[in-house]
Predict the structure.
Amino acid sequence: MVPFSTIKWFPFRLTKTTAGIVLLALLLSCFSTSEYVQARGLPYLESGYQLQRHLNVLEGRAGDPWQYRVLASYLVEGALRISAALHVPHHVAAAFILFRIAQDAVIMLLPYAYYRKLGLPLAYGLVGMALLAWGISYSHYDSDLQFNTFFDIIFYLLAGLCILADRPIWIVPITLLAALNRETSGLIPLLPILVSAFAGPKGSLRRAMPVSIIAFVTYLVVFVGLRLAYGKQALIITAGGRPGVELLRYNLFRLVTWQQLLATLSIIPIVAILGYRKWAPGLRVLFWGIVPIWFVAHALGAVMAETRLSLVPQALVFIPGTLFALSERMPPGASPPHQWNNQCEPRRSALRRRETILTECPVTSRITLGR
């Protein structure tokens, strides 16, 4: 069996640094989860709407769209049964909280790996984890623990990592799980073809095309299959009214919308956009492929003050964009920031070695200096 640490595209090595990163992820996940728990309280988790919504999904009567987001509920149900079997005190709340801590820990580790694969140095990856934890801790407005929303972040980050690692075939199983989790995963199948078309090397589009087609068909099959399996459900109408212009007006003209967006996203999107020219080419593609449609769709179909819904573009695009914007000078030995993958790195390394030889050679250095 080959250890993970020897696989070329696996972003971690079994070192003290890795242990420190994992510990940091756990601390940050405890911090972000505690903010959600404090905002609602243990009674809400044990006997309130958190538990009731979970049971409604299992019983097939949660309403549209909640009933069609089944993956998280069935995974959480497994955690609840294990907690009950172990006779854990307050086993319902304990299972919910521990599951969310584990979920947030994965969410902290994946961005670190994603930012490092983009070419950002270790310190920038750690800062990215902290920025995301800050955003999550302020995203609990009118929200329970929202497991399916946070799985959405995980699946989008996994998709980004697979594309960076030139493993697009993994987009298909990721899409399968993501579609079972939440309908907002519909953009994942498009990522390989978008990045290949606009930022990939020659010939990559031919490889990405069948993967995107299979993934998109998988998404459609799951999307339709869930609605056939559970039947037509009553549409859940938010406080802002029906989806469309009515909900858009509600979002735009509420002060709390802008307060929550500022608290969760801070000025990170502004800094990122100001530094757009310094972004990796693939990151620019993700910006245009995800961000506009994401915010338009949620402005028309969701309550935008519930800013956990903005964490996918924040983690996938805005935080790394900000880190690129602030990376005026890269530390020695760090990967160049303006690359989407490592395919060009061998050529760059060869050129650097050649430049070093020419500089260190007395004859060639005099010729170079004279020129």
Q: What stands out?
A: Confidence is low (pLDDT under 50) at residues 1-11, 329-339, 341-352, 354-371. Residues 347-371 form one domain. The two ends are 55 Å apart (CA to CA).
